[in-house]
Amino acid sequence: MNRMAQEFELDCLDQLEATPAILRGLMCGLSVEDTEWKPAPDRFSVAEVLAHLSHSEGHCYRIRVDRFVSEELPEFEPDEAQMYLELYRNANAEDAFHHFEEQRETNVEYLRSLPRSAGERRARHQEAGEITLQQMLHEWTMHDLGHIRQIAELVRARKHLRAAGKLGDSYRLKP
pLDDT, tens digit, for every residue of 122-175? Predict the structure, then answer.
């Protein structure tokens, strides 16, 4: 995006737009078994992380964006991923990713249509207090980056640690 265009649009949109390509790169070469592998019973697999991202995209972030734009000071409950764990179990990584990617493309396109001033629209978050749309976009980006990191660690642990042999001994992975 050129500098001039960025001055007239909301922050974080380039990073939000890049997330699907980053995830696609991390997933190249993964088998279905790799995407379903969990480092521990209480940890997410790649497929479950992708299902969470897909669900959050439509059922949290897009709904909040729409409410920021259409309501005066809407109230938001905290998003509690733990409530949806059953929804993420047995997820198919490719299906979840495709659904996420489609939603993200639509969401970024919509966000790019909003004036920069929309970033100052306010809402009341039950835990964080008064927030702006721009602040939520930064949190959304942090959410993406956290899950990119999580998937990268899962890929490192599943596909590369053992294959690195003794060269992998010094790595302390936390998938």
Answer: 999 999 999 999 999 999 999 999 999 999 999 999 999 989 999 998 998 888
Rounded Cα gap, residues 20 and 89, in angstroms: 21
- Quickly count: other Cβ atoms within 10 Å of residue 59's Cβ: 14
Strand (E) or helix (H) holding 123: strand 122-125
Strand-pairing partners, residue 124, are 75, 130
Q: How confident is the model at residue 6 (pLDDT cuts 50, 70, 90)?
A: low
Give 132's DSSP letter.
E
Tell me the longest C-alpha to C-alpha distance in the chain. 59
Mean pLDDT of 19-45: 95
Q: How far is the C-alpha of 166 from the C-alpha of 53, rounded, in Å?
A: 34
Structure tokens at 46: 């790649």
Residue with tokens 């721009």, as numbered in its chain: 134
Domains contained in the chain, CATH given: 3-161 (1.20.120.450)
Please give the C-alpha separations between residue 107 and each of 32, 61, 112, 141, 170, in angstroms, as whole numbers. Answer: 28, 9, 9, 13, 41
